[in-house]
Amino acid sequence: MIGNQVGKGAIYLFIQIISSMISGYIFLILLARITTTDIIGTFSLLVAISEIFANIAVIGLPESIQKFVGRSFLQHKHADAKVFVIISFILLSVGIIASCLVILFFNDWISNIFGIGFGLVIVVDLMVTSYAVYTVLYYIVVASLKTKVLPIIIIISSVAKVILGLSLVLMGYGILGLALGYTFFGQILSSILLAIFIGKLFKSTKKVTKPEITIRSASKSLLVGGIVAWVPLLITTVGIDLGTIVLYSTYGSHQSGVYFIALAIANAINAIVHSIFTISLPVLSSMHDGRKRFVWQAIRISAILALPLSCSIIFYSNDIMHLIGSNYEKGSSSLQILLLSSFPIIVLSGVETLVFSFGQYRYTLTISLATSIPRTILYIVLVPIFGITGVAMSYTIGSVMGLIASIIVANRIRLSIFWKPLALTLFLPLSLAFLFAAFDVNYIIGIVTTITITYLLLMKLHVIEKTDGSFFIELMPNKTPKAFVTISNKFGKIIDWFYR
Question: Cβ distance 149 to 155 under 8 Å?
């Protein structure tokens, strides 16, 4: 039952991620056609600063919400879940006010260092507020495992913010229009829709019972779990966004704009991994047995979904960046390096999610520090020398160091990671993509063929298990399974051949 719940939740999150990837990529292509890399670079700076302060504002609530609200939902203690949600928003309000005041206090310093005016500093405050509120609402829905609504909400808000953001840029509002239209108003719309759904979710509870948990106990649980998760999350966020900030202050907005596009593409692919482990945390927190086996399966499935795509793009990164615009081709090497981080991110995310669900917070902190400290140091050393390539190198080296730390942690908690199937999932698409690129095969044909052949070989090698297919078919929404069953029956003999 739990496996089915997490599977269905992950499917809808996966649909949401794919929708966001498509809409985001279309937005980037159109934006690159109508504006300059300097505007995109300044936008990337605002996003980086707002993400850091928004993660300060949420006080680690996303992780504690997944753990405590998720467990309450799974145990059908909706009254307890409601208490946790109310306390979450009280804590969030304090965090948002504190973060926005800090930004305003350092207004002069920010303006002098980055050359942005007071108006954009106010915009950063608005972005922090909208991002923090959206994040908490989003994770409440994820914790409920009622993620069917997420693709609908994200598609509506994505279409709205793309239209609004591009319209404001075309009307001559530049970076101000881009930041307000695409980020602030887009997240506000998403937040309103999520809030409406959450309200209906609690109203639909037929049995109104008295909460078993007290306000004091709920506050303590959220704060302890949140702060423990907050430090690693903040360290990780700084480790990601600091690269953009250092690049902007060293080379200016142009190179920051190019790097922002490369990072956005890499993050979109890694978001596939994030969706699986995001939906896994509330389930893991409610489990008593089988957590390690569950996490290994999540790592394996994440690798199967993400690595063939990321590896196939590596050797066609120049073509992908050219689609955005000819000015962005210089970021192709950065994209290649960033995509190499997908494999370590899969493993370290799995181990990190497991130890957090166990309450072994020092291991969570160890993995985060091992990832982010090398990144931070290398940003300062490599960015002035190599520019955007230096940022990508720092990011990926940090991911590798996090992988090493997660392997050590996995050994200590006796988590079995089977490296052979992971190695095959990594090196098969890398080898195929290299061959196609070497023979100058068209990038669309090369990427599609690489992914197709990789999956067929993984089936033959039993890395993709036969039960995986039936498992995913069961998780498909409503009438979709019947169509897949009909198709699979027609090709039954071929499929059976792969598993002999």
Answer: no
